[in-house]
UniProtKB/TrEMBL annotation, chains A, B:
InterPro entries noted in UniProt: GntR_C, TF_FadR/GntR_C, Tscrpt_reg_HTH_GntR, WH-like_DNA-bd_sf, WH_DNA-bd_sf
Protein name in the entry: GntR family transcriptional regulator
Organism: Paracoccus spongiarum
SUPFAM superfamilies, A to Z: GntR ligand-binding domain-like, Winged helix' DNA-binding domain
Highest taxon above the source species: Bacteria
Pfam family, one: GntR
Signal peptide positions (record): none
Keywords of the record: DNA-binding, Transcription, Transcription regulation
Coiled-coil residue spans: none
Annotated ranges, domain HTH gntR-type: 23-90
Region (Disordered): 1-20
Amino acid sequence: MDQIVPRTADVLPSAPEWRKSGPEAEERVVRLITEAIQQNRLQPGDRLVERELSDGAVANRQAVRQGLARLAQAGLVVLTPNRGATVVQYSPETIRQIMQARIVNEGAALRDLAETMDDAGRDRLVDILRREAAAYDDGRVTEARHLSRAFHATVMELAGNEMMTRFVNELIACQPLLGNSRTGKQSSFSGVIAHTRTVAALLRKDGAEAEAINTQLLLALEREFLREATAEPG
Amino acid sequence: MDQIVPRTADVLPSAPEWRKSGPEAEERVVRLITEAIQQNRLQPGDRLVERELSDGAVANRQAVRQGLARLAQAGLVVLTPNRGATVVQYSPETIRQIMQARIVNEGAALRDLAETMDDAGRDRLVDILRREAAAYDDGRVTEARHLSRAFHATVMELAGNEMMTRFVNELIACQPLLGNSRTGKQSSFSGVIAHTRTVAALLRKDGAEAEAINTQLLLALEREFLREATAEPG
DNA sequence: AAGCTTAAAATTGTCGACAATCGGAAAGGC
DNA sequence: GCCTTTCCGATTGTCGACAATTTTAAGCTT
């Protein structure tokens, strides 16, 4: 059984831990592209060529194809027949619709959560909030933004409705494509303030207030995105 | 250029209109399986074997695979590695979550629609409503159910938020997997009544009332599904 | 020089064969 | 007689090569 071609990926220590195939590979493709979008390394309109991805990246072409299909269904890329995948470009109307959908679903989650949140949930939110504030104070804007998204995602998860959680997570995932939030520092600041007040409202079991704060925050974000989208329509 | 193997699908008149490949083929797989589920020809737990689908059905194996992947992402089938696809079996908790998500999103849509609906939209809803009532009167339960789903889908579409429309459509699509509604006739009847009252409320621009009616309808449906799910858990 | 036609390069889409994996059935041991 | 182990059939997952399509670029005509 010791042999010349020793099932490469299993034996060689220099070989990477991950395989180039399987459901994991598809997942990796999705994650890498998503991260690239979140870091603005991929801009709206950029083409995603299968061969480049399967070469330079971490999977074979089939896994890349499946990953792109999933991203298309999630709405992060658009897949035109015989033309391949490109990063989506949202219209102002779509931006409004995305934020409205978040307002509705996160609002419902906050109302539920005000009644049902336990100490463990509170601790998780407070922890994220503290790290978000720290990242903001240290000027780590990217990390602050990431933690802000984690805050909203955690609210959904704690509310316990997996369907709505999945939906909102999709909406959050395409947030980096809505705009850079050039005024990053300021918007992060509003985020920290709003999240703090949201947690306070939740602890008072004041679901309506938590929802109202979150709605105002999302509307402010929407205004920023719309300003960017109309200012630089290229 | 006239030859022995004449690009089969293009020339032969006996050949089917559709090709066995392409994005259309994948779409066809999704549609056929969805319809089979809606007609209870596929029950929760049934296995979906790729070869059987690509043989008896209308696409090559690759299209079948992609179609199954999409159905899995939509939540209609579950895809276990190396085991293939099976029709999902929802837990009572998941049933609650699905209906709650519909209540939230359809409610928001109805509130918007009360303000913005024009005559064309009214006509579309009334038309569906009339056909639904006719189907119920004639005892065509399956068609009545289909039109009931169309009513809810059309409400979302008229409200104009594509994101929420897509989400609710997914939730509606898995309704046949929640239960048969053995009391089909009666639940269809409640549906017709509730939809009629919903349209009436919309025409009065009473969004809150429309939402309330719809919520009660969905909660009644949820109770039915839960009764079935707990009664016959096999 | 501008515009059209045609060829070639790049990219996606498709197919069949093979490899890996799982479930169950048969054989063997206690 | 029951449990464990091994093998086999069935099914999914993977890969490379080829076909179809689109885009790019050059060449030719006007």
